[in-house]
Amino acid sequence: MVFDAPPAPHSHSWMPSSPCGSGCIEPIDEVGTARMLTRLAGVAGLVLGFPVLTVATPKARREDMQRRYARAALRCLGMRLRVIDNRGADASAAGFADPGTPMMVVAGHIGWADVVALAAVQPVSFVARADMVEWPLLGKLAQLTRVIPIERARLRELPGVVGQVAQRLSAGNRIVVFPEGTTWCGRAYGSLRPAMFQAAVDTATPVQPVRLRYLDRDGMPCTVPGFVGDDTFADSAKRVLRSKGMTVEIVLEPREHPGTDRRDLARRCERAIRGADRSRHGVLDTEWIESGNTRVQDPSVTQQEPVSTGATAW
Questions:
Q1: What is the pLDDT of residue 261?
Q2: pTM reported for the whole predicted model
Q3: Which terms are listed as keywords in the entry (predicted)?
Q4: What is the pLDDT of residue 136?
Q5: What is the pLDDT of residues 80-109, one digit of tens each?
Q6: Which residue has the higher pLDDT, 152 or 311?
């Protein structure tokens, strides 16, 4: 994932990008090489055994098995899981939603470990970068969890992806989307783009805002899991596997009703996810989209757009 490189041939001026890079990553305590290799072997064993165990487990017990698997994967990565539920009467013992209840789950995006962390709360499907299915180990899991692939550089494909999300929601599925459209380091973040929220509006599906962050052993925000700059999956995985004392904290905020305006829904979810936090890279102006070294104004802020397509802005 290279954000500092020139735009790809099919990229567009509204393509989400992040100013985060290698300078954002601050190392924490590390384990030795032997411990790192043991962790890697554990993750590999879980991934290879997942298809067999899924088939062997009765459908009624599959979700619990998959949740346990994700939690075991987090332990293999050296992470502890902390879930805080702020939903009050809307809280679900199952996690994001009761079985068979559709739910769009939205969170800020830090790195590939987000997928494992959210699945450890409750099994879900994801909208994820298209090449994720080609990654070692994690790619197989992506296929098994029915990831909806998205090519960020191809704006014309966005309405189709929004349509697939709507279909899954209509079928009673739980879908995780990362509306920033790219990864940030965990101490800085981008605005939530409104396009994906159209699927929730069209299907009248409630949205579950999730505040996700990684903490070091002292409880301070940790950027080690950030998948930013010129990171490869191998580089990022090695950094995570070597780290010691990390906790992934997932805060379930009160659900948001979809309403009829995806932009309003995006703003409400962003307030829920960010709270009083401020981005380390400065306050982001939602009327501007970063595009490489060029700042271009998002025309959808000042021009009326067809609400049903989701094509004019992320």
A1: 96
A2: 0.81
A3: Acyltransferase, Lipid biosynthesis, Lipid metabolism, Transferase
A4: 61
A5: 999 999 998 888 888 999 988 999 999 999
A6: 152
CB neighbour list of residue 311: distance below 8 Å, 6 or more residues apart: 155, 156, 158, 159, 195
Q: Which of 79, 113, 83 is nearest to 95 (CA)?
A: 83
**How does pLDDT run across 285-302, given as a tens digit for each residue?**
443 333 333 333 333 333
- If one compares 111 and 154, the residue with the highest pLDDT of the two is 111
Q: Compute the distance between CA of residue 20 and CA of residue 185 in angstroms, rounded to an integer.
A: 6
Q: Which one, of 228, 243, 308, 219, lies nearest residue 19 by Cα?
A: 228
Q: 43 or 301: which carries more pLDDT confidence?
A: 43
Q: Count CA atoms closer than 13 A to 25's CA, side-chain side.
A: 19
User: CA-to-CA distance for 224 and 214, rounded, in angstroms?
Assistant: 8
Which residues have a Cβ under 8 Å from the Cβ of 83 and sit 6 or more positions away? 121, 249, 250, 251, 252
Distance of CA 77 to the CA centre of its chain: 17
Dist CA 27 CA 49 (whole Å): 32
214: nearest Cα among 97, 111, 103, 297: 111
Contact between 180 and 108 under an 8 Å Cβ cutoff? The reply is yes
Q: Indicate the DSSP class of residue 299.
A: G
Ranges of beta strands (E only) in 151-298 are: 174-177, 207-215, 246-252, 288-291, 294-297
- CA–CA distance, 134 with 174 (Å, rounded to integer): 23
Does residue 172 surpass a pLDDT of 60? yes
